[in-house]
Design brief:
The structure holds 2 protein chains of 2 kinds.
Chain A: E1 3-13, H1 17-28, E2 33-36, E3 53-54, H2 58-63, H3 74-84, H4 91-110, E4 116-117, E5 130-131, H5 134-147, E6 151-153, E7 156-164, E8 167-175, E9 181-191, H6 212-219, E10 224-225, E11 230-237, H7 248-252, E12 261-263, H8 284-296, E13 306-309, H9 315-319, H10 321-324, E14 333-334, E15 337-338, H11 340-347, E16 352-361, E17 364-365, E18 378-380, H12 397-420, H13 430-442, H14 449-463, E19 467-468, H15 470-486, H16 502-526, E20 535-536, E21 548-555, E22 558-565
Parallel strand pairs in A: 1-2, 1-9, 2-6, 9-18, 19-20
Antiparallel strand pairs in A: 3-5, 4-5, 7-8, 8-9, 10-17, 10-21, 11-16, 12-13, 13-16, 14-15, 21-22
Helix pairs in contact in A: 1-5, 1-12, 3-4, 4-12, 6-16, 13-16, 14-15, 14-16, 15-16
Chain B: E1 2-9, E2 12-19, H1 38-48, E3 68-71, E4 74-77, E5 87-91, E6 97-99, E7 102-103, H2 121-124
Parallel strand pairs in B: 1-5
Antiparallel strand pairs in B: 1-2, 3-4, 3-5, 6-7
The chains are: A alpha+beta, B alpha+beta.
The complex binds flavin-adenine dinucleotide and FE2/S2 (inorganic) cluster (FES).
C-alpha cells in the first residue's frame, strides 16, 4: 500500500461529462491532469444514461449559425430555469450556465459531435436545446480527453481528500483491481463525482453514485447546499426487477406530450387536484409529488405505485410513437431492452404500475460561479454540486451545467495549480485517511456491508421520497444515528481477497451514504414548507414566505445545519 | 434456479454451480427468477453465497456495456438478459479476464505493449 511522492497539477475525481470537460480544459491550459474514476471511464456515471438533452437558448444557437427559435433569449432561458426551480436556484450559477453554454455547444460543433436541434423541450417555454445521446456524448468526451493527453486511473474509488492544514493536496482511495490503498498528490483537486442518487432503492441512475464526493468535500471544510432536494422522475417501472427504474412509461407518456392518464386505485385522475389544466403534463416535481401523495394517503396500487393508462387512446397513437421518437426503434427496442411485452400489455388496455424514481441530485457541494468550494485547492462541478437548479431541474439543464461548469472548473484548477506548485504538499491527515479506508477490510467479524446498504436505501425511500413528514424525518434521523453508532463501526469484509472486493467497496459506499442521508434529513427537517422536490405532507399549503438555502457544514466532527437567504440578483421574486 | 458459472480465479477458469432459492420474499419484486436479469442474480449470489464473486455493473440498462459476459455461449449484456434455469455464465473473453466474470474493458488504459519493460502499469500513470 504505497504512497507516491510526485504530484499532478490537477486531479479530477470522476470521469463523467463534467470531469472530462474539466480535465480537457485544465490540460489545454498546460496542466498535467489525472482523472480518477471509480469504474471505467466511458462506462460509468449518469452521463452515459442521459436522454441527451442539452439546453441552450435559441438565440445562442443562432449565434453559432444554427437554425433555432430567435425569440428564445438567454433571459427567457434564465427565467424558465428559475421559475421551474421555485426561485430556490443560486441565480449566479444559472446566469453563468445560460450565458456560457453557447460557447460550449460551439466546441461540440468543432469537435464534430453529431447532434440534432430540439423542437420540443418539456417544461421550457421554447423548444430550446440540442440532443446528443448520452452514449455519444460520453464517448466523444472520452476521446477528446485522451487526445488532449489526460492520464487516467480507473477502478479507483476515492474515499478521502488529503489535506495539509486547510488546503487539499490530493486524494486517497481504494484501487479496486488490486486492493491497494493509494495516495495521489495534486496541487488542485476537482470533485466531479456526480450525484448521490444510488442511495435510493428505486432510481434511474447507475450503481456507483453514492456521494463520496459530497462526503469528502464537507469533511474537508466545504459546504453542502440544499441536500434535501432530490429530483424524482415520475412514471418509472418498479417491477419486474429487470426493468426496475426504467422511465419507459414516462417517455411513452407525459414526457413526450402523450396524454396517458395517471390514476389511483379508484380510477380517479388525481392530477386534477394538483394542476387541472396541464394534468399529467405538469412539471416533473409536481407529477412525482402527486403520485407519491396518492401512495402515502393509501390510494396507491398493490406494489406501491399508481396506474398509468393509455386505454382511452386509439392503438394507432402507440403504434406510430416510435416513428416520432429518437430513442425507440420501430420494433420497440429501447436502450438495452425489448419493450414489446410492455407495449402489448398497454395495447390490450392494461394500465402500468409506475412510481417516482430518484433521478438527479439537486443539492450538493456549494460552489460559486467560478466553481470554488471555499477550500483552498478544491473545486467542484457537475451533478456533485448543488443549487444550480433550485427545487426542480428542467430537462436538458444538467447537460448545459456539466459543460459550462466543467470548463470553468478545469481552467480554475489549472490556474490555481500554478499558484500552488511551490508549496509543501505532504498531507498531515494521511494516517487517519488511510485507517478510515482500510478499517472495514481489517475487520473480520461483523455486519456484511450490503445489509447496511439495503437498510440505508430503505430509510431513504421512507423518509426522503418526494413526500415527507416531520414524523418520518425524525424517525429516520433516530434510526440513522443508531446505525451510525451500532452498525457502521461493525462493518466487516467476509472475504480476504484484495482484488475486486465488493464487500469493501460497499462498506466505503456506506460511509458516504451516512453523510448524504444525514445532510438531507437535516435539510428536510429544517425546511418546514413544501417546495418543488421537497413536499411536506404536514405543510401542504403553497408557500410564499422567505426562502433560504440549507447549508451543511462539518463542525467539530458533526454535521451542522445553517441557513442563508436566497439572493435574487438577476430576476426578482414576484 | 441453477446457474453454471465459469469463473476466472488465480489465472485459471473454474466451474461453480449456484442454486438460487425461490425469489419471492427476497425483496426483488419478482415471483420467478425469469423476471430478473443475470446481473441481479450475480448480485444476489455475491451477497448470499459467494462473497468473493466478481462482476461488473453500472447502468443496468444496456448502455455502458460494462456487464458484458458470455451467456449460453454468446457475449451479451448481463443486465439485459433474463435468467433461466441451467444458464451458463462465463467471462466474455478468457484472454481479457481479470477476476471471475470481470474482463478488461477499459477504453483509456494504455496498452501493455506500449509499456517499457521494468515499468508497471501504475508507474506509467505518473505526471508527465
Ligand atoms: C436516466 C437518466 C437520464 C438523464 N437524462 C438527462 C437529459 O436528457 N438531459 C439532462 O440535461 N440531464 C439528464 N440526466 C442527468 C445528467 O445525465 C447528469 O446530471 C450528468 O450526466 C452528470 O454528469 P457528471 O459528470 O456530473 O456526473 P456522472 O456522469 O455521473 O459522472 C460521475 C463519475 O464519477 C465517478 N465517481 C463516483 N464516485 C467516485 C469516487 N468515489 N471516486 C472516483 N470516481 C467516482 C463515477 O464512476 C462516474 O464516472 C439524466 C440522468 C439519468 C440518470
Ligand atoms: S450495466 Fe451497463 S450495460 Fe449492463
Amino acid at each position: 500500500m504505497s504512497e507516491s511522492s510526485s504530484a499532478w497539477d490537477v486531479i479530477v475525481l470522476g470521469g463523467g461529462a463534467a470531469g472530462l470537460v474539466a480535465a480537457f480544459h485544465a490540460r489545454q491550459a498546460g496542466a498535467s491532469v489525472l482523472v480518477v474514476n471509480k469504474g471505467l471511464v466511458g462506462r460509468s456515471g449518469a452521463t452515459i444514461t442521459s436522454g441527451g438533452g442539452v439546453s441552450i437558448a435559441g438565440q445562442s444557437l443562432r449565434a453559432l449559425g444554427l437554425e433555432a427559435d430567435a425569440s428564445d433569449t438567454e433571459e427567457r432561458f434564465l427565467q424558465d430555469t428559475i421559475v421551474a426551480g421555485s426561485w430556490l436556484n443560486d441565480q449566479q450559477l444559472v446566469e453563468s450556465m445560460v450565458t456560457g453554454v453557447g460557447e460550449e455547444v460551439g466546441r461540440l460543433v468543432d469537435w464534430g459531435i453529431k447532434f440534432t436541434i430540439n423542437r420540443r423541450a418539456p417544461g421550457h417555454s421554447s423548444g430550446r436545446g440540442i440532443h446528443v445521446s448520452g452514449v455519444d456524448m460520453q464517448r466523444a468526451l472520452t476521446r477528446i480527453a485522451v487526445q488532449a493527453g489526460v492520464s487516467f486511473r480507473e477502478d479507483f474509488q476515492s474515499t478521502q481528500l488529503l489535506r495539509r492544514g486547510a488546503e487539499v493536496v490530493g486524494v486517497l482511495g481504494l484501487d479496486r483491481r488490486t486492493g491497494a490503498v493509494d495516495s495521489l498528490y495534486g496541487h488542485s483537486t476537482v470533485i466531479a463525482t456526480g450525484g448521490a442518487t444510488s442511495n435510493w432503492s428505486l432510481r434511474t441512475a447507475p450503481e456507483e453514485l453514492s456521494g463520496e464526493g459530497q462526503r469528502m468535500a464537507v469533511e474537508a471544510g466545504a459546504t453542502l447546499i440544499d441536500m434535501e432536494m432530490t429530483q424524482f422522475l415520475p412514471c418509472c417501472l418498479a417491477a419486474p426487477a429487470i426493468w426496475r427504474g426504467l422511465q419507459f412509461p414516462w417517455i411513452l407518456g407525459p414526457q413526450s406530450g402523450v396524454h396517458a392518464w395517471l390514476m389511483n386505485r379508484f380510477g380517479e385522475r388525481f392530477m386534477a387536484r394538483w394542476d387541472p389544466t396541464r394534468m399529467e403534463l405538469a412539471t416533473r416535481d409536481m407529477v412525482s409529488a402527486a403520485c407519491a401523495t396518492e401512495v402515502y394517503e393509501g390510494r396507491g396500487s398493490p406494489n406501491g405505485g399508481v396506474y398509468l393508462s393509455w386505454k382511452h387512446l386509439p392503438n394507432d397513437i402507440i403504434d406510430h410513437f416510435p416513428s416520432m421518437s429518437r430513442n425507440i426503434s420501430a420494433d420497440w427496442q429501447w436502450e438495452g431492452f425489448d419493450m414489446t411485452p410492455l407495449v402489448e400489455r398497454i395495447k390490450q388496455g392494461y394500465a402500468i404500475e409506475v412510481a417516482p424514481a430518484a433521478h438527479f441530485s439537486l443539492g450538493g457541494v456549494r460552489v460559486d460561479r467560478g466553481t470554488h468550494t471555499g477550500v483552498p485547492g478544491l473545486f467542484a462541478c457537475g451533478e456533485a454540486t448543488g443549487a444550480m437548479h433550485g427545487a426542480n431541474r428542467l430537462s436538458g439543464n444538467a447537460g448545459a451545467q456539466v459543460l459550462v461548469q466543467g470548463r470553468v472548473a478545469g481552467l480554475a484548477a489549472a490556474h490555481d495549480a500554478r499558484q500552488r506548485r511551490a508549496r509543501d504538499r505532504l498531507a498531515d491527515n494521511h494516517g487517519a485517511a488511510f485507517s478510515a479506508t482500510v478499517a472495514p477490510f481489517e475487520k473480520r467479524d461483523g455486519i456484511a456491508p450490503f445489509e447496511l446498504k439495503e437498510q440505508l436505501s430503505q430509510l431513504a425511500e421512507t423518509s426522503l421520497g418526494p413526500v415527507r413528514t416531520a414524523e418520518s424525518i425524525a424517525q429516520a434521523q433516530t434510526a440513522l444515528a443508531d446505525l451510525k453508532n451500532s452498525a457502521l463501526p461493525q462493518l466487516a469484509c467476509r472475504t480476504r481477497d484484495l482484488m475486486w472486493n465488493r464487500d469493501w467497496s460497499d462498506a466505503l459506499e456506506c460511509q458516504a451514504a451516512f453523510t448524504v442521508l444525514e445532510s438531507a434529513l437535516l435539510g428536510a427537517a429544517g425546511r418546514e414548507h413544501s417546495i418543488g422536490a421537497h413536499q411536506r405532507h404536514d405543510h401542504k399549503a403553497t408557500y410564499s414566505g422567505p426562502l433560504t438555502h440549507s447549508l451543511i457544514r462539518f463542525d467539530a466532527g458533526k454535521l451542522v445545519r445553517h441557513t442563508t437567504p436566497v439572493a435574487f440578483p438577476f430576476l426578482a421574486r414576484p | 434456479m441453477l446457474m453454471h458459472l465459469t469463473l476466472f480465479r488465480d489465472g485459471e477458469l473454474r466451474p461453480l454451480d449456484i442454486q438460487l432459492p425461490p425469489p419471492a420474499g427476497l425483496g426483488l419484486g419478482i415471483d420467478s427468477w425469469e423476471g430478473a436479469s443475470v446481473s441481479t442474480a450475480l448480485q444476489y449470489a455475491q451477497r448470499v453465497f459467494e462473497p468473493n464473486l466478481g462482476y461488473s455493473l453500472s447502468c443496468r440498462r444496456g448502455l455502458c456495456k460494462l456487464c458484458a459476459m458470455r451467456i449460453d455461449g454468446e457475449v451479451k449484456l448481463a443486465c439485459t438478459v433474463p435468467l433461466h434455469d441451467g444458464i451458463r455464465i462465463e467471462p466474455a473473453k478468457p484472454k481479457l479476464a481479470l477476476h471471475d466474470t470481470v474482463v478488461e474493458l477499459s477504453l483509456v488504459r494504455e496498452k501493455p505493449k506500449r509499456i517499457k519493460p521494468g515499468r508497471t502499469l501504475e508507474q506509467t500513470a505518473q505526471p508527465q
